[in-house]
């Protein structure tokens, strides 16, 4: 009888563990499917159950940023870094939150830290370079922006909008031929990229 009870308890514990693991998986699946409010709700439940659950914090902050709740993402990422200050996922998503809040210096510092510490194969290296380029454009540091945007398209060469912004940075820096090259690449990837088409026309006029 005692053995039967122990077996039943073990089965119940395994089932509860499987349910919790499924909740974690569901949050990530929901995030990837663009169902951000639902992913946020699941992650909040997981963090309430375990305040040290860094994976849940990461999915929560990714979802908050995509849901345009940047201040909340900044707050939660900051809280999570008190638990795990060197987690590169938290560094990058906190940088994104600060970028969208217009906190350029704080965002730049974190993006640079992410690039310096994350593996070269990390999923968001290209994004970090792209956001750095946008910050430099905001600051009218166009040569710096060119370098950052060039790094972003080198990392992920199939994103037409990044090529467009790379072209813009080069155009604003006065490098019209290389800007044309970037705009042409954007249009190869997406013939409907109107910003690239306009930029190409401007550069062609400058080169005549």
What oligomeric state do the depicted chains represent?
A: single chain
How far is the N terminus from the C terminus?
Answer: 92 Å
Main beta sheet: strand number and arrangement?
none
**Number of DSSP helices?**
11
Structural class: mainly alpha
Name the helicity range. over 70%
What is the tally of beta strands?
Answer: 0
Low-confidence stretches: 6-24
Inertia-based shape: elongated
Radius of gyration over alpha carbons?
A: 22 Å
What is the typical, i.e. mean, pLDDT? Answer: 91
In percent, how much strand structure appears in the residues?
Answer: under 5%
What order do the SSEs take from the amino end to the carboxyl end, as H and E? HHHHHHHHHHH
Indicate the topology.
Layout (H helix, E strand, L loop, with lengths): L1 H31 L3 H14 L4 H13 L3 H14 L4 H13 L3 H14 L7 H14 L3 H14 L4 H13 L3 H14 L4 H14 L1
Helix pairs in contact: 1-2, 1-3, 2-3, 3-4, 3-5, 4-5, 5-6, 6-7, 7-8, 7-9, 8-9, 9-10, 9-11, 10-11
């Amino acid at each position: 009888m005692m053995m039967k009870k122990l077996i039943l308890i073990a089965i119940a514990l395994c089932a509860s563990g499987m349910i919790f693991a499924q909740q974690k998986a569901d949050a990530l699946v929901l995030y990837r499917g663009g169902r951000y409010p639902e992913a946020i709700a699941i992650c909040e439940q997981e963090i309430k159950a375990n305040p040290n659950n860094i994976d849940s914090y990461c999915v929560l902050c990714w979802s908050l940023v995509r849901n345009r709740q940047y201040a909340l993402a900044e707050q939660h990422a900051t809280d999570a870094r008190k638990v795990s200050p060197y987690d590169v996922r938290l560094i990058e998503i906190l940088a994104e939150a600060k970028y969208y809040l217009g906190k350029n210096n704080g965002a730049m510092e974190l993006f640079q830290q992410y690039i310096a510490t994350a593996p070269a194969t990390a999923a968001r290296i290209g994004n970090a370079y792209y956001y750095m380029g946008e910050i430099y454009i905001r600051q009218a540091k166009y040569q710096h922006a060119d370098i950052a945007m060039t790094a972003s398209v080198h990392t992920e060469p199939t994103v037409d909008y990044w090529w467009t912004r790379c072209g813009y940075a080069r155009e604003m820096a006065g490098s019209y031929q290389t800007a044309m090259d970037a705009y042409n690449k954007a249009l190869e990837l997406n013939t409907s990229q109107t910003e690239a088409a306009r930029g190409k026309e401007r550069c062609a006029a400058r080169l005549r």
